[in-house]
Sequence to fold (258 residues):
Amino acid sequence: MTTARSDGVALHYETAGDGPTLAFVGDVGFGAWQWAWQFDALAGPFEALVYDLRGTGRSDAPDGPYDVATLVGDLEAVLSAAGVENAHLVGLGLGGIVALEYARDHARAETLTLLGTAADTDGVDPMTLYAPPDDPNGLRETTERALSAAFVDEYPGAVEDVAAWRADDDADRDAWSAQAAAVEGYEGGDLHEITTPALVVHGTGDGIWPPDGGRALADALPRGEFEAVEGAGHLVQIEASEAINDLLFARAGTDDAF
Fold:
């Protein structure tokens, strides 16, 4: 187990591969499984780095609520412990906000890829995706809520796999709520200060973080771009994994593609 420490909190992280660093920052409550479609595919030409947010997986779970500034400090601690000088940050939901705010105050961020993320979090309720780890039906139902109906119908096995991983790796209710508080308490401030190149990718069927918020975020960033994935739900990195991976290849400076 590889750990970093942030104000005494142990944070578990893993790296694989060698090359420019792609660092993945997760969404509320979800374990590192959320990056399974990216980690193995991208490790090799890149150094892929994933970590468990405080409260999730093998990381410590101090009492909440948490805030974005604390989670930004955690990301800095992980990158520092891993010896990362520069990173292409990839965040989902809350992880996108953490990556965004990290780029405001730290120089390690080369690019941002923000999936299913918005700066205006009014109406976003991350608790709608929580299910107890000992409730397999609830885990399946809430997983389906984060995906499009078309994907669920076509890939029922993927839903079962994710539900099983969630039972092992997701945050418990208290930690999930503590992370959700960071979303609820977030105030974006002046986004014109963030000049890191940023690509906002949003599934048009995202019922958790509305896609209009992603479009508005891209418009507000000086070097922001927006790309829609037609029909995909919140877990766009799963539904459109090949397309997302191709984007990451391009953004991290290699001509290789799938």
Summary: The domain at 2-251 is CATH 3.40.50.1820 (Rossmann fold). The chain has ten helices and eight strands. The CA atoms of residues 151 and 239 lie 7 Å apart. The first strand starts at residue 2 and ends at 6.
